[in-house]
Amino acid sequence: MPYLKIQLDNNVFQSREIIEAISIGRGEQNTNDLIIDDARCSRSHARIYMEGDQLILEDENSSYGTFVNDQRVDKKALQNNDVITIASQKIWYIEKELSPCQFVLDYRNPNLVDTNWMQVLKAIDVEFIVPTVADKITQAFTVLYEKINLLIKMGIVSNTFMNSIRSAASNAVKHGNQNHPQLCVFIRVTIVNNKLLVEIRDQGNGFEYTKELKKVKKSIEEHNKKNMGINEILKGADMVEWNLVGNQIKLWKNFSAQNTQLSHRDFEESVAVIRTKQNIHLI
């Protein structure tokens, strides 16, 4: 589904799916869907809506104008990766970012112990579906972390990115799904435009991450250790993207220089760890 990617801070973004028309302006929440807190943004500045099979951005006679790719527009059909600028706010239009995943590990399936783990570790696009049950979490997260560990050995990502993944995955289980065994966590590891993407989604009600981000900034300024879970996520990723309700997070990491080629033994050692964990059944 197409969506808008809205910059909240230097490396923090909000993604908003385009399900219906979106009004943009400086007014109150009940008059606009997307609020831009900038005096150069008019109260009713612009709107985005479908016209036939095209997504249209239309300026609402604003004082300072609406821009797409640095060109002022009155009305324009949006194209993938167009950059909308209204006052100081930048908004990316993403038509389609990911294709359906070809390699899905569904831990609701009891037969996963027979999986070719070497193939999983070498795959560039893997999705995990994990019930919020202790043994399933241990099994799935072991595969996930071994996969990331191999990327660390290759010099593609760092340990701080692993810490970001651990914090986000833990939040999805404990705070998102609240350890409810009927709910699942969905994790996808893939490569998009030479960037590593780890997408984590839970089935909870989300949280007000914009408020939490403000608390993190205040904690850093005051040199205290409150709200450091989110800070752990932020400092390990090059870009962090939450959806509107806060039950999905995307962690992006630019590729580092690839210094090391992995040996077959590296993969075999990871497979051995995975096989050990796949056979456990915690009470």
UniProtKB/TrEMBL annotation:
InterPro entries: FHA_dom (IPR000253), HATPase_C_sf (IPR036890), HATPase_dom (IPR003594), SMAD_FHA_dom_sf (IPR008984). It holds the Pfam family HATPase_c_2. This is FHA domain-containing protein. It comes from Uabimicrobium amorphum. Residues 22-73 form the FHA domain. SUPFAM superfamilies: ATPase domain of HSP90 chaperone/DNA topoisomerase II/histidine kinase, SMAD/FHA domain.
